[in-house]
Amino acid sequence: MGTAPGLCTRLQGIYQISTQVGLAYTPAAMPIDIDIAHVARLARLDLTAEELEGYKAQLGVILDHAAQVQSLEGGPREESAHPLGIVNAFRQDERRPSLDRDEVLSQAPETENGYFVVPPAMEAE
Fold first, then answer.
1. Could you tell me the residue ranges of all domains in the chain?
2. What was the pLDDT predicted at 91?
3. How far apart, in Å, are the Cα atoms of 69 and each of 62, 65, 74, 89?
4. 3-state percent breakdown (helix, strand, coil) of the chain, nearest 5
5. What mean pLDDT is reported for the chain?
6. What are the tens digits of pLDDT across the range 67-89?
7. Exposure string (b/e) for 56-94, b if CB count within 10 Å is 16 or more?
8. How far apart are CA 125 and CA 85, in angstroms?
9. Burial classification of residue 7, based on how many CB atoms lie within 10 Å of its CB (0-12 exposed, 13-18 middle, 19 or more buried)
10. What parts of the chain have a pLDDT lower than 50?
């Protein structure tokens, strides 16, 4: 299992898995030709030649993966926010009696003017 020069750790993992299942990555196989130096200039990035080659390799892996995903067969699916058929089960919003304020405050360790007294969340310096 080899490594591709200039790839970040996450892309190295994708590269290694791809080579294990027989998918070969070569920078020349990039689906579209993108001038990495031009994009870097537009983003006002001063990249070395080594960095440009590294980013070209990373972009190639990303574009190859996108092309593989795009080539998968499958028809249109109904949009969903969750892969399982989960629906929210809300109860009816009905009025019901609340707890008695004096009874609840009587159980608190410390109260003041009808409110709970709690330690400060953030100490002032």
1. 9-70
2. 86
3. 11, 6, 11, 35
4. 40, 5, 55
5. 78
6. 888 887 777 777 777 777 777 88
7. bbbbbbeebbeeeeeeeeeeeeeeeeeeeeeeeeeeeee
8. 51
9. buried
10. 1, 25-30
